[in-house]
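Before we proceed, please read the two lines closing this message. Report back on whether the C-alpha cells fit the sequence:
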Amino acid sequence: MVREDVAYNRQDFWVTTANKQLNFVQQIASMLAIDGRAAVVVPDNVLFEGGAGETIRRRLLKEYDVHTLLRLPTGIFYAGGVKAIVLFFNRKQARPSQPWTDQLWVCDFRTGEHFTLKQRPLRDEHLAPFVEAFNADDRSARVESERFKPYSYDALVARDKANLDITWLKDPSLTDADDGVPPEIIAQEIVEDLSAALAEFSAVADALAAYAAEVAGRD
C-alpha cells in the first residue's frame, strides 16, 4: 500500500511537508528558470495553511515576483464545491537586499459567480475582464477596481501567518456567505455528478461484459 502522508525531503525545497499542494508549489518554484513565469492552480488551503504553508508563502513572496492571485469560482471542477485559485509568479535573479514581490494584485472572480460543468460552463468570455485587467504587457498600467485590488509586500507579510486568503466583497443575495452557492445550483450539481457517475459505471459494465464475452468465445 502506498502511504498518502509521505513527506519529501529535498534540498531544492524550502520546507519538508506531506502536504501535496504545498509540495506542488515548491516543485514549480524550483523548476522555474531565471525570468521564468508560472500560473499555478491550487486549492485555497495553500493561501492560509500554517506551519510549512507560512514558510513557503514568505519565501515565495521574498524570492519571487508574486504579482497576481485569481480567486476562481466554484463549479468549474468535477468535484463540486472545490475552491481554488490561480497564483501567478515569476522567477528573478537573486536579490538579497529586498524582496522581489512589490505588489500582489488579487482578483475576486468568485463572489457572486458560479458555474457548472454542463448547465453553465466557464467560457473564454467570462474571463475576458480579468485578462484585460491583468494587462500582461504592462503591469504598471493596471487599474484598481471593485474586483481587482493591489496589496503591498509589507502589508502581506504583516498579515497573520502571511495569510493570502484575502476577501473584501460580500454577496447580499446569498444567505450562507461561507459557502457562497445557492441551494438550487448545489442540487443541479448533484444531479450532474450522479449522471456522470452513472455514465462511467455503465461504460465500465459494458467493457466488462465485452471482455467476458471475448473470454467465453476463446473457450
